[in-house]
UniProtKB/TrEMBL annotation:
Protein's recorded name: Redox-sensing transcriptional repressor Rex
Quaternary structure and interacting proteins, as annotated: Homodimer.
Protein biosynthesis in keyword set: no
Residues binding NAD(+), per UniProt: 92-97
DNA-binding region: 18-57
PANTHER family attached to this UniProt entry: REDOX-SENSING TRANSCRIPTIONAL REPRESSOR REX (PTHR35786), REDOX-SENSING TRANSCRIPTIONAL REPRESSOR REX 1 (PTHR35786:SF1)
Lineage: Bacteria, Bacillati, Bacillota, Bacilli, Bacillales
Stored InterPro entries: CoA-bd, NAD(P)-bd_dom_sf, Rex_bacilli-type, Rex_DNA-bd_C_dom, Tscrpt_rep_Rex, WH-like_DNA-bd_sf, WH_DNA-bd_sf
Coiled-coil annotated residue ranges, if any: none
Length: 216
């Protein structure tokens, strides 16, 4: 089994779930082996970038043969801890939050939303898409009770930092932030911010200027 040969760049780390998803597609189609060129064509990522990404993990392929699909799939499954389920909390059940609850992640991999919080929820709690939803007053109690380390944040911008501060105090390790606020958190927490308006503006810019960004 290949091992990590150096500290993995952040850009590479962000592509690991994509590699895993496309390798699943190849495996489901009965593909036994692939080349970096074939993977490049499917993923629309430069083949040199793929080879460079894979080089961080040692010898994943063989010269003249390419990559064994099942070996790669097994490797990335372990790298992404796909055999271990991760429970996630959602804070904010508005339009976007509701969409997350209806989709939930367990359909496609090992991550699932198990509890949500919204100020419109009654004190006794309610259920949305089979997920229990409680009032934000119970955030600390429920998250600690359920041992949750990761939270999806889809709250109004004005309360985002306040919620982040509360989560930091109870030891939450990561926030997937869908608010436009750049959260201030200690080094012990990791925040990934997805600002949909900025992503849309970037897309419009790329289209108007015919910019190809194959490294995403």
């Amino acid at each position: 089994m290949a091992e990590v040969t150096s500290k993995i760049p952040q850009a590479t780390s962000k592509r690991l779930p994509l590699y895993y998803r496309f390798l699943q597609n190849f495996a489901n189609a009965g593909k036994k082996r692939i080349s970096s060129s074939e993977l490049s064509e499917a993923m629309k990522i430069d083949a040199a970038t793929i080879r460079r990404d894979f080089s961080h993990f040692g010898a994943l392929g063989r010269k003249g043969y390419g990559y064994d699909v099942m070996d790669l799939l097994h490797f990335f499954r372990q790298a992404l801890d796909q055999d271990e389920e991760t429970d996630v909390a959602l804070i904010g059940v508005g339009s976007l939050g509701n969409a997350f609850l209806k989709y939930n992640f367990q359909k496609n991999h090992n991550t699932r939303i198990v509890v949500a919080f919204d100020p419109k929820a009654p004190e006794t709690g309610t259920t949305v898409s089979n997920i229990p939803v409680f009032h934000p007053d119970l955030i600390e109690e429920k998250i600690m009770e359920m041992g949750i380390d990761i939270v999806i944040l889809t709250v109004p911008a004005r309360v985002a930092q306040e919620i982040a501060d509360r989560l930091e105090k109870i030891g939450v390790k990561g926030i997937l932030n869908f608010t436009p606020v750049r959260l201030s958190v200690p080094d012990s927490m990791r925040v990934h911010t997805i600002d949909l308006s900025i992503e849309l503006q970037a897309l419009i810019y790329f289209i108007k200027n015919d910019v190809k960004d194959s490294q995403l």
